[in-house]
Amino acid sequence: MLPVGNNDTGKGTLSPKGYIRIKDAIHVIRSMMFSQEMPEALLVAARKNAEELSISADRQLGPKVEARPTESWMDQSSTTLIKAIKSGDVALFAMTENTTHIFAIPKNIVGDVLVRAGLPPTKATIYLRFVDMMPVTLLRDLQVDELQQSASKTFALILKEKEFEDWLSDIAGRDRWPLDKKARKPVGRPDRVSAVKPLVKLFVESGKWRGGDRLKQLTSLINAKLKHQEVSRGTIENALSHLYAETRDLRYRHKKRKRRASPKRN
Length: 266
Prior knowledge:
The chain is of the alpha+beta class. Among the domains are: 19-35 and 75-161, no CATH class; 190-250. Helix content is 42%, strand content 7%. It is built from nine helices and five strands; from the N terminus they run βαααββαβαβαααα. Strands 1, 2, 3, 4 and 5 form a five-stranded antiparallel beta sheet that branches. Helix 7 packs across helix 8. The protein starts with 18 loop residues before the first strand and ends in a 19-residue tail after the last helix.
């Protein structure tokens, strides 16, 4: 099951079983889209600003921070999901407070609902990032009859977990996530470790597999997605090792099974 609830506060309203909050979905996409928490474009801009601040301090000048990342990485995870929802690849739903009711958002107003919910954010809606449940009044002149007739005061946008998970594994493989990995010249057959890393990351981020679980379980989950392109246990072990080395996240730490020594024959 993918992570539910509000990742920002840890005290958010939990999603109903089989659904994921749209905020949490964006967090999962970002963790798979980039190999590090802070993408390279932001790190470069931060280093440049640090250098400028150091020079300003030496000259006893006031700080002048100008450098900005040229890539729109900050919006990339959310815009990718927004595009999928608008195209109908992923259906949009709303839940009311205490997950009392779940309503499908009609396709003809999906775009309007997303904009009013701050996706993408504007100066008028940026505050919604810090709100667990949004007021129903945001949608008052849209045709969301069931939601408006439910007498609920607040709502949150959610997605079907299985549908989101299937879409995510497809796009991660198709677009070769993470996007910021360093390219290298292919030698021989395609690198299967790089091919399965996004799937390993998906199952670990979603909580379907943890470092202490049996590797056989993770192997089955991944091969079920790959269908006729199954990978070996060793390939998955290597993918876990790479991810642990890149992130130092203990969820990817897996002790390789030691082979038992064959009994000596007399």
